[in-house]
Amino acid sequence: MLSNLELHALLNSTFISLGVSFFSVLISLFLAFSLSFYKIPGKRLFSFLFLIPLLIPPYLHAFSWMHLLLFLENYNLSVIRHLNSLPGIIGILTLAYFPISFFIIHQAIKNIPQHLIDAALQVTNPVRVLKRIVFAAILPSTLTATLLTFIVTFITFDVPAYLGKNVFITQIFKSFTFTSEIPRALYLSVIPVFIVGSMWAILLLYLVKEKPFFSLQSFKKSVPFSIQQPRLLKILMLSLFVVLFLLSSILPIGILQVKNILYDKIPFYTASSFGVITNTFWISFISSICIVFFSTLIYIMFFRKMAGRIFFLSLLALPPITYGILFIYLFNHPSLNVIYATPIILIIAYCFRFAPLVSELLHTHTQQVNPQYLEAARLVYPPSLRMFHRIVIPLYKPVLFLAWVFSFWLVATELPITLLIQPPGFQTIITRLFIVLHYGAVELMSLMTVALLFVSLLPILAIYFFFHIDKKNDQ
C-alpha cells in the first residue's frame, strides 16, 4: 500500500507525464507536418535545430527560467511558485522532451511511400490525403512517441528535485537515502513498471500489433508532396519555429552564457576540467559499444518473442535511481571492489538501463528489412560465418551504427545512475553540472554546459547526417 504522501506524489507524476506527453506530441505533430508538407525555408536546418534541446539537461531549463523570472520581477522570490507548480514543470519538461516525439513522428512521415500519396491525390484533395493516408500511417509512431515521452517524464529526477516538487521518483529516492528501506524503494519502483507494462501490452497486442513503432529510414520521394500556403501563413509558421527554438535551446544556454559574460567571468579552464570532459567521452564511447553488444544478445535471446518484448520495454519505466540502488546493494562488498570502485560498474549499469531501447531499434530495423534478401542469401550461402559476414552484417550495419551513436548520447547525458554509483574520483560533465548547481556554485555552470553540448553533439550530428544527408541510406 502507498502512504498519502506517496499517493500524492504518484498522482503528481502521472499528471505531469500526461501533460508533457500531450503537449509534446501536439507540438511535434505541428512541426513534423509543417516541415514535411509545407514549403518553408530552412527545413533541414530546423529539423536539426529541434533536436538540440535533447542535449541540454532538463534542470538547466529550470535554472534558466528561474533566473529569467527573478530578473524580470526584480528578484521577487514569489515568482518561483510559478515554476514549481504542476503547469510550470509541465512547461519546462515539454520544452526539454518534445524532440523525442518530433524525431519519431517526423521520421514516420518521411517513411510514407510516395506511391500511396500519388494514388490518393488522383481521387481526392490534399486535406483528405492527410486525414486518410498520413494520419493512419503515422498512428503507430504517434502512440509510441506519446508513451516514450510519458516514460521519460515519469522517471525524470532532476527537475522535480531542483524545484522541490513532490513526485514519485523523489519518494523512491527518499526511501533509499533517508530511511535506508531498500525493499520499500524497490516496491515503489515496480509500480511504474507495472503501469507502463500494461500500456505496452495494450499497444502491442491491440493497437500497433506487428507494425513498426517508428521508422529508421525514409524513402526518397521524386516529387515531394507539399501544400500551398499563403505568404502570411508561411511567415507565421516560420515565426513559431524561431520562437520555439529560442525558448527550448537559446534561452537555457544563453542565460548561462550572458550571466557568465556580464557577472561571473569564469574562464573555461576553471569551469570545466579536461579530465571531466575526457571521462565523459571515453565512458560514453566504451559503454555504447558494450550496450550494442549486450542489446544484440538480448534481442536474439528474448526480444523477438512478444512476451519478452513487452517485459523489456516495461523496464524502460524502471527509474534510473532504482538501477543505482540495486547496483549499490549488489556490488557494495569488499570482494567486488574491482567492479564497485571502478567505472566498470557504470558500464554494466548502462548496459542494463539502455538495452531495451537499443533492442527495440534492432527489432524495428528487422521489421523493415526485406525478408527476400535473407531468403535469396540462403540459396547462395548455407548458414555459416560467410553468410553472416556477406549478408547479415551489411544489412544491420546502419542500425548498429545508429544504436552506437544513440547509446553514446544516452550515456553522456545520464544523470541519476552516474550520480549514485560513480566511483571515487570519477565524474562526468553531467554529474559535475548537477553537483555545482546543488551546492550553489552556479558561476561554474556556463562553460561546462558548452563542454557537455560539444560532447553530446557528436552522436546527434551523426544521427542527423545518417538520416538527412546520406542519400544512399534514404533510398
From TrEMBL:
Topology versus the membrane: Multi-pass membrane protein
UniProt GO BP: transmembrane transport
Record's keyword terms, sorted: Cell inner membrane, Cell membrane, Membrane, Transmembrane, Transmembrane helix, Transport
Top-level division of the source organism's lineage: Bacteria
Record localization: Cell inner membrane
GO cellular component, one term: plasma membrane
SUPFAM superfamilies, per database record: MetI-like
Signal peptide: none
InterPro entries: MetI-like, MetI-like_sf
Residue intervals of the ABC transmembrane type-1 domain: 10-203, 277-465
Sequence intervals crossing the membrane: 15-38, 45-66, 86-105, 133-157, 185-208, 235-256, 276-303, 310-331, 337-355, 399-421, 441-467
Name of the protein in question: ABC transmembrane type-1 domain-containing protein
